[in-house]
Design goal:
single chain, 568 residues, alpha+beta, five-stranded antiparallel β-sheet, four-stranded antiparallel β-sheet, 18 helices, 13 strands, 14% strand
Length: 568
């Protein structure tokens, strides 16, 4: 029994050891989950992990009570087994019940410890991932806003230049008069000043737009005198400029080819975007809208992609139609999935939609007629409602990958930002810890259970051997006793058949055997003689003589003959 108690204690200690492994793995996994943050990183303070929720506190109390129950049961069994070993024989049903209860309680304790430790690991890793995703998202959003503010400041400086204001007023007057705008000195002056201001910038050109949406100045002659592209796609934004605001125009299909830029899928042109600023006259009235044209795949995408989490992490922006408006860093994967051709770019080509359960055959996704009818991803659907949030349980991205992500809608730029990482990479430390410690727990439980079964089997076999040996011994004793009885009976008959009185005494002088002739001679029964001495049976004189004869025999160490007449 004590061996079994020792085996149970071993299993209990093994469970505690496994839990300690989980806690140490928790610390390693927690630090590992923060590795690979390439831009802005943030770690949560230790105090945020130290507090226990009410649920965790209840779990710990249950663990403690279960531990007390196991320890109490072990002590009670050991105490009772020391007082009454027979009650806890291996073959006794009560002992087997105790074994089952102790194994079940110990296993339950191990599983409870493991469950609690796994939950702590998962919550801590998720807290670290949450902090990293939020840091990446905030950095991407902040970088984009800084880029936008820089472009607005540069464009404001240009539009507030007195020389530019003068040229704009004269150019508008020429348009009103129906004069040639392309070859005018005002057009050349606007272009020259624009090139001076943006000589080192990745800017594709500018527009000077009237309130009716007509372009009257541009870096390209073909755009002059035509309805402006911004007025066609976002007239509401253009109206806000004439109310005195600076606005950001998200990527739209370009009105002209741009050298070296990949096209939008289904279009023959690439994506383009703008920053708009009003031009005021001396009276503070908005007389025109001035725009600067940018390539969304250039600096705009670079500053957003500068912040990502891990190796599989991406940060990107989407518009109100849930289309990618910045490089996602997944262009190669999109090409391999046949969602993009080599001469196409993901900006405005990819709608952030869920490819379906288990990931549809992506190579057929491009050809599906109802591809745009597929539901948005979990993140995109919430951004389409202007919501910000985070998901740490996992959802499919537009490539069908299981990802964790954080997202936020920016009201100033009227676009959404998202930062995602594959769940496989994010939860890898947790998965490794769970697999490793689960294996250790299973092995230890199997070893402990095997030890218990082994002890029970060995004990049962020992009991059966002891019972068999005991039965055999009892049979031998019975046989020997029967033989002795037979021999004693035969000896008694021989002794009784002797003609002379025969008696045998022990060293103390007490009679241990007499025959029939002795009984007849002295008139005493065997039962009254056995155990008595001579003084108890005969007169003192006769008893003294008999005692003297006994002393003669003992002193000689050999037989002694003596005759004495006994009166009948």
């Amino acid at each position: 029994m004590r061996r079994f108690a020792l085996a149970t204690l071993t299993m209990l200690l093994g469970s505690l050891f496994s839990a300690s492994l989980l806690i140490s793995a928790n610390a390693d996994a927690e630090s590992a989950s923060l590795d690979g943050v390439d831009f802005v990183s943030q770690t949560l303070p230790l105090s945020s992990f130290a507090g226990l929720s009410s649920g965790e506190l209840i779990s710990l109390i249950c663990l403690f009570l279960l531990l007390v129950m196991v320890a109490f049961l072990i002590l009670v069994v050991m105490k009772r087994s020391s007082r009454d070993p027979a009650a806890f024989e291996f073959s006794v049903p009560a002992f087997k019940r105790v074994v089952v209860i102790m194994v079940v309680l110990t296993s339950a304790l191990g599983m409870q410890l493991s469950w609690w430790a796994f939950e702590r690991i998962e919550s801590n890793i998720q807290a670290s991932i949450k902090a990293s995703l939020e840091s990446s998202l905030n950095a991407a959003r902040k970088n984009a806003n800084i880029w936008y503010e820089n472009q607005v400041s540069r464009l404001k400086a240009y539009s507030l230049n007195p020389r530019v204001v003068e040229l704009v007023e004269r150019h508008i007057a020429l348009h009103s008069e129906g004069r040639n705008l392309i070859d005018s000195s005002t057009m050349q002056g606007l272009r020259s000043l624009f090139n001076e201001v943006y000589s080192s910038e990745e800017v594709e050109g500018f527009f000077l737009i009237l309130p009716d949406g007509l372009s009257i100045a541009s870096m390209r002659d073909s755009n002059v005198g035509r309805q402006n592209i911004i007025a066609r796609h976002h007239p509401e934004l253009l109206n806000r400029v004439f109310l005195g605001e600076s606005v950001f125009v998200p990527p739209i299909p370009s009105d002209v080819p741009l050298e070296g830029a990949a096209n939008i899928r289904g279009f023959n042109v690439p994506a383009t975007m703008f920053v708009l600023n009003p031009v005021f006259n001396a009276n503070g009235e908005v007389i025109a809208a001035l725009s600067a044209r940018y390539r969304p795949a250039a600096q705009f995408s670079e500053v957003i992609n500068a912040s990502r989490v891990g190796q599989s992490g991406v940060s990107f922006a989407i518009d109100q139609q849930s289309r990618l408006i910045s490089s996602s860093g997944l262009e190669l994967s999109l090409e391999r999935a046949k969602l993009l051709m080599p001469d196409e770019h993901s900006i405005l080509s990819i709608s952030v939609r869920d490819p379906g359960e288990n990931g549809i055959a992506l190579r057929n996704y491009r050809q599906e007629q109802n591809a745009q009818d597929r539901p948005l991803t979990y993140m995109a659907e919430r951004l389409s409602r202007g919501e910000s949030g985070i998901n740490l349980k996992g959802y499919r991205d537009f490539l069908g990958r299981e990802v964790l992500g954080a997202w936020a809608w920016d009201d100033k730029m009227r676009i959404g930002f998202a930062s995602e990482i594959s769940r496989e990479e994010a939860m890898h430390p947790y998965d490794v810890a769970v697999q490793l410690v689960s294996f250790i727990i299973v092995v230890m439980v199997l070893i402990s259970a095997s030890m218990t079964v082994f002890v029970l089997l060995i004990g049962s076999r020992a009991n059966r051997s002891l019972v068999a040996m005991q039965g055999k011994l009892e049979e031998e004793i019975s046989a020997r006793t029967q033989g002795l009885t037979q021999r004693n009976t035969l000896l008694a008959k021989v002794v009784d058949a002797l003609p002379g009185a025969l008696s045998i005494k022990d060293k103390a002088g007490n009679y241990v055997l007499v025959n029939k002739r002795f009984e007849q001679t002295f008139g005493l029964s065997k039962d009254s003689v056995i155990g008595q001495d001579d003084f108890s049976l005969f007169g003192s004189a006769f008893a003294a003589r008999l005692l003297a004869l006994d002393d003669q025999v003992r002193s000689r160490g050999s037989e002694y003959e003596h005759e004495e007449q006994i009166k009948q």
